[in-house]
């Protein structure tokens, strides 16, 4: 509950209810109280409703070579506009231990998309599960759809970070009989600081 002060204008009392203070869709109940001779009493009551965002469809496109899944949500309808769209994604194995909330980017009116790289999910293979949440301009967040797709990775290179150290991983290399080397250099000065790292099997 939140108490709003009313304002008198030409004999009428009005109040603006900010839905961002409640962030909930559905039915709302409002009571009006007046103070008369030092006593407060209810003088009126009304109801109103706030619609949540909806979407027509959620689609996915897996790219095994790039190690990504693109999730696209289309036909978003949001009465107060779209503040942002988020797509939490995780792999089917080990429940939600690798969940990441990905921010979707606007493609066109009512269409948002996010690219999900396997590297942000420990380069796991198999089923990826995505839920799509739309936050409206009034702050109300709604689940508008779900989707899933799968990845089978090959020669997939990704990077993890721990402090100041970067670790490069190669998932499912096509061959490792002679070992795997990872030449690395900085973008400045060409390849004057190139170093060949020998990968180890883990």
Describe the structure.
The chain is an all-beta fold. The protein is built from no helices and 16 strands. The protein has strands at residues 7-9, 12-14, 26-36, 39-50, 57-63, 68-74, 82-91, 100-103, 105-108, 111-117, 126-136, 141-151, 156-162, 165-171, 181-184, 195-198. The strands form six sheets. The protein has a four-stranded antiparallel sheet with strand order 5-6-10-9, with no helix packed on it. Strands 8-7-11-12 form a four-stranded antiparallel sheet, with no helix packed on it. The protein is elongated, with a radius of gyration of 26 Å.
> How are helices and strands ordered from N to C?
EEEEEEEEEEEEEEEE
Distance between the termini: 56 Å
| Low-pLDDT segments, ≥5 res | none
The coarse overall form would be elongated
**How is the main sheet built?**
4 strands, antiparallel
Number of helices: 0
Strand content: over 45%
Which structural class is indicated by helix and strand composition?
A: mainly beta
Strand order across the largest sheet:
5-6-10-9
List how many beta strands DSSP finds: 16
Helical residue percent band:
under 10%
Radius of gyration: 26 Å
What is the averaged pLDDT score?
A: 92
Core attributes:
202 residues, mainly beta, four-stranded antiparallel sheet, 16 strands, elongated
